[in-house]
Amino acid sequence: xxxxxxxxxxxxxxxxxxxxxxxxxxxxxxxxxxxxxxxxxxxxxxxxxxxxxxxxxxxxxxxxxxxxxxxxxxxxxxxxxxxxxxxxxxxxxxxxxxxxxxxxxxxxxxxxxxxxxxxxxxxxxxxxxxxxxxxxxxxxxxxxxxxxxxxxxxxxxxxxxxxxxxxxxxxxxxxxxxxxxxxxxxxxxxxxxxxxxxxxxxxxxxxxxxxxxxxxxxxxxxxxxxxxxxxxxxxxxxxxxxxxxxxxxxxxxxxxxxxxxxxxxxxxxxxxxxxxxxxxxxxxxxxxxxxxxxxxxxxxxxxxxxxxxxxxxxxxxxxxxxxxxxxxxxxxxxxxxxxxxxxxxxxxxxx
Length: 351
Prior knowledge:
Blueprint lengths: L4 E4 L4 E4 H18 L4 H11 L3 H25 L5 H28 L2 H36 L13 H5 L7 E4 L4 E4 L1 H17 L4 H12 L3 H25 L5 H21 L5 H27 L4 H41 L1
Antiparallel strand pairs: 1-2, 3-4
Helix pairs in contact: 1-2, 1-10, 1-12, 2-3, 2-11, 2-12, 3-9, 3-10, 4-7, 4-9, 5-11, 7-8, 8-9, 10-12, 11-12
């Protein structure tokens, strides 16, 4: 089965190339739908396929930049991108990202980058999954209470409302973000972007894994605006990050190009699918994806803790991460097809 593997000239490792294609197409669909580069799946995915962690980080960021550009253009047509918010957040993103990237180089010299990055990933994924499902549970409780009280269910109500507390901070300058419908201190989006940029530099992600929920829960963005605006930010941080990691010699362009060919198509499908799945439908799917990704990293840890099970755990982690990408992609594609059919039927009925 040697023909299924291709040598990566910079990283010096042989990689299962069908896995790269599955990651590229699937994450293109998922990234366009969730409003992120998909690195929260691709970086551990590349590492599981055989890339050293530093190369997995740099390669993923390079592929992510081009895909996010395509998705941003599509979301912009739907009015889902708050460009003013995006440009403000660039200030914190770039600074935070460079600090994170320098920390990765330092940890690589110490020889413990893989263990540290995986632990940070695992903790972060658990926290995000808890936040998403706690939000969904509170939203459902509000809806049930409204029904019991004989009130109409508010379609715009939310579960977790941390953003209301942060909006009380009136530190000048204040900004009006018309697309997102937010009036807040400019230091709030700058602070959020610095935090997400720093984590992005360490974890090798565009920041979407953290920024999309942060835009929803800390800034109060509507879900569809958070998706589009986050993709704009992922594009900017991805371009900067690709240049930074390429300069440091940690980008495998062959793998990035293989993934980007499929991702360019998938990103179009995922972006359009947000027309047909709104609000909490996106949040629930996102939460399930985060749980699956956390489980794949946990399997890798088990293989390290119990060497006798290393091969089984590594194969299980590979199957889980690729299966997760495939399953989510199929769900989004089916929603896209169903929604497109309904829209076409409605137009025909009007005609």
